[in-house]
Sequence to fold (433 residues):
Amino acid sequence: MKITIVGTGYVGLVAGTCFADSGHDVTCVDIDQRKIETLQRGEVPIYEPGLEEMLRKNVAEKRLTFTTDLSSAVPDSKAVFIAVGTPAGESGDADLRHVLEAARQIGRALRGYALVVTKSTVPVGTADKVRQVIAQSTQVEFDVVSNPEFLKEGAAIDDFLKPDRVVIGTESERARKLMSELYAPFVRTENPILFMDTRSAELTKYAANAMLATRISFMNDIAMLCEKVGGDVDSIRKGMGADKRIGYPFLFPGVGYGGSCFPKDVKALIATAREFGVEFDLMRAVERTNERQKKLLVQKAVRHFGSLADRNFAVWGVSFKPKTDDTREAPAIEVIEGLLGKGGKVFCCDPVAEGAARRHFGDRIRYASSPYEALEKADALFLVTEWNQFRHPDFDRMKAIMKTPVIFDGRNVFNPSVLREKGFIYFGIGRGS
Ligand code: NAD
Fold:
């Protein structure tokens, strides 16, 4: 099948590459000329494990091409996916500017029946808006389908090829058949394609992300309580997770959730609820807890050191989570800004997100090529992103390099008693300090 993907970011590029790999003829479109030129050279503008090899293979086999010219790609396509960004607008609602602009351009380019699929995370009712916008500029027949994406950055290829479920919102039998055909290679095991109405599909994505964010904030509140009453949140996590009704995933307290999805999707869900006269108090609390949590490490540092002025701080990890270079809404950004705001000096290290960190901070901070280099003369280490590379460092070597052996462990990665035995002053999240 000939497919066009509009928006070649984390989602569009992964979806396009995976569809090409399953035998379809895919054109990825983006308005970002530099991004398209990079891709046309066979280079991948983002870090995503496994993506580069798969992309190169499919480009070489001529199933995957890149262009800025939507009007040349759409006319022959049976399915056109909209995978552009939906950032938070001023009042927290999802900004649909890019989605509706893409719809407008698709409408002008359609020449025969096509399926237009909203893969971007979009609020309830967007499929209807997309349908209206397209209908304004074409007479040809088309269907609009909601197909929210659930992939996780860092494991995106695997998630796309082996999804837990595929959610498809449509009322059209023709669309249902085409979507089943497209996704058949990825749901060979029991994992289902769940067909539903478009509004339910749109809301499912927000409900899923909001639930995950809720689990994180819940654990962060339990961690806060542990710090007040004495108690180890990690023991509690295990005690809770063993209950099959609860399970282990997403029970890790830390420096708060970040990334390009949870923060904006929680905001957008609150905004949608408000628009329809529902005050989603629970999600507002989830958001408040998260904001507090992002500030926690710097507060702990101030409590320990008094003034942070002219102190040197190593920060390990800038991306919002391991295995990605994405720093959108990353807790590390807030931690580093907090340290700089109090006069501290920051030397950071991240295995793949240095470029993104440089774009944000420029020469306001220094960039180390190894975790140990970042520790030179450091008054303290802040572990913010739990990359595997940071999990088992040589503590004796660290102690020898650092000015004072103080660790703020934002992900509860290290064992506090081992560190204290080695003479470190250790601060974790909800572990008694
Ligand atoms: P992104 O910012 O990485 O990519 C979006 C791309 O769309 C950009 O390259 C931008 O230049 C392009 N674009 C904008 N307007 C365009 C237009 N009119 N025509 C062509 N291209 C255009 O975004 P992303 O992280 O891939 O997210 C895309 C959507 O998918 C969002 O709604 C997001 O919430 C959702 N989503 C993201 C993830 C994730 O992990 N990143 C997971 C699931 C869902």
Summary: The chain has 17 helices and 14 strands. Residues 6-12, 29-32, 35, 83-86, 98, 101-102, 120-121, 149, 151, 153, 260-261 surround nicotinamide-adenine-dinucleotide (CB under 6 Å). The radius of gyration is 23 Å.
